[in-house]
Amino acid sequence: MEMFKYVVKRILLMLLTFFIIMTLCFILVKMLPLTNLPQDPALRDIILARRELMGYNKPILVQYGIFLQRVILHWDWGIGETMYSGREVVDIFAEKLPPTILINTYSLLFSVPIGIALGIFAALKKNKWQDHVVSTGVMILVSVPSFVYAFLVQYVLSFELNLFPFQINSGTAWLSPSMFFSMIPAILSLSFGVIAGLTRFTRAELTEVLTGEYMLLARAKGLTKGQATVRHALRNAMVPILPMIIGQFISILGGSLVIEQIFGIPGVGPLYIQAINVRDYNFFMMLSAFYTFIGLAATILVDISYGFIDPRIRMGSRK
Q: Which residues contact 176 (CB under 8 A, 6 or more apart)?
């Protein structure tokens, strides 16, 4: 019951935060001047009619009320004005979402096992040369933005070694082997930072667990170092690590905004950047809602997952 109350409270707070952020986004973007309309008379008439329905000639707060009503009641985010003129924003978003989700999923599947394995290796070799090498590599990888990796990967793997194309293949066969092969440079660029973050976090958690008193007790009972590590240390160290993986997926998703642009991935990232550059209000609002919602939802999932992964944790309970 306490857990249920905690979840409901967090969801309500998330919705309030989401509402405040979206309100600020709407007001700020509406303060910018309107963009030019397309030259096609038919498209101009459609866009002008939609602008009239959305109350573009009314005060900003009235416009916001109309916007909320259309989104909540009809899931109508409007049509593209300067981008994909005349087409529904929702339809374009649905077309762009698969490559974004796919590239981030591939990156997570690649980086999580490597990051955890390197963290475990560094913890078991604490203060030895192996640990120093891993820790130094982690410091370098954490300090460099993902788009720098993108340029390095393109230069080394695509230009110098000619192993991969500079950009992904055209088309929509997202699950084909050739498409996956062309995505590898983008996957690597997104993975370096996640590998470094997981390695550092795993090493810190496992190092702390290995020095616990119950580990000495396990060794005293006759368990070898390997048995004690697998049966006790790893299990306890994974409690904070597993929820962190959820947060890592969200961080990758945010970082892929630039990576998608560099490697020509026709996903949500380039769409968002273009919407900001050309000030297409409708695209900007929907994509802002998308990134804001997944960021807020991830924090709740991380908090709730602690309670399910470790039964000793009881969220919201009072002693």
A: none
Rounded Cα distance between 135 and 129, Å, is 10
Token pair for 178: 């050739």
Per-residue model confidence as pLDDT tens digits over 144-192: 887 888 899 999 998 888 899 888 888 888 888 899 999 999 999 888 8
Q: Give the 3-state DSSP-derived string for the chain, with helices as H, strands as E and coil as C.
A: CHHHHHHHHHHHHHHHHHHHHHHHHHHHHHCCCCCCCCCCHHHHHHHHHHHHHCCCCCCHHHHHHHHHHHHHHHCCCCEECCCCECCEHHHHHHHHHHHHHHHHHHHHHHHHHHHHHHHHHHHHCCCCHHHHHHHHHHHHHHHCCHHHHHHHHHHHHHHHCCCCCCCCCCCCCCCCHHHHHHHHHHHHHHHHHHHHHHHHHHHHHHHHHHCCHHHHHHHHCCCCHHHHHHHHHHHHHHHHHHHHHHHHHHHHHHHHHHHHHHCCCCCHHHHHHHHHHHCCHHHHHHHHHHHHHHHHHHHHHHHHHHHHHCCCCCCCCCC
**Whether residue 30 has pLDDT greater than 60:** yes
For residue 109, pLDDT beyond 80: yes
Give me the pLDDT at residue 319, please.
47
Closest listed residue to residue 306, CA positions, set 247, 250, 257 = 247
CA distance 212 to 232: 10
Residue 57: both structure tokens together: 């000639």
The reported pLDDT for the residue numbered 285 is 92
**pTM summary value:** 0.80
CA 137 to centroid of chain Cα atoms: 23
For residue 22, pLDDT beyond 90 = yes
Q: How confident is the model at residue 24 (pLDDT cuts 50, 70, 90)?
A: very high
Among all chains, which residue has been given the structure tokens 């924090």?
299
